[in-house]
Amino acid sequence: MAKRLSNRQRIERMAEEASIEAEDKEQEAEDKEQEAEEKEPKPSVRKASRSKKAAPIQKRMKFVCRVIDENSKEMASFPYREKCEAEARASELSEKTGKTHTVNLVRVPMADDE
Questions:
Q1: Do the beta carbons of residue 90 and residue 103 sit within 8 Å?
Q2: Of 96, 93, 73, whose CA–CA distance to 85 is shortest?
Q3: What's the pTM value of the predicted model, to 2 decimals?
Q4: Do the domain assignments include residue 103?
Q5: Which domain holds residue 76?
Q6: pLDDT in tens, 80-108
Q7: Residue 98 domain-assigned?
Q8: Distance separating the N- and C-terminal Cα atoms of the chain
């Protein structure tokens, strides 16, 4: 019959098994390193480059002040620098027609000569 082990003996046996496993892992790691060193690097295969699509050219934009009525119909257009005149024109049209007119800032593409 198998003899029962004391707690101290079981702990010693577990420690021995753990040290054996650690040694095995170290040996496996060393073997892998040696295999990696022995392997010759493969020559890299270069893929043919594909033609790339040209990125769309970003057009320059500018702000324009537009005076619009209640139905979003454009009544007048002013450059950004003349925003005060656009607001004056909107209030003038509001008083004249009795309908509300507002000023909207809109981005539009810049002409080539600007």
A1: yes
A2: 93
A3: 0.48
A4: yes
A5: 61-109
A6: 999 999 999 999 999 999 999 999 999 99
A7: yes
A8: 103
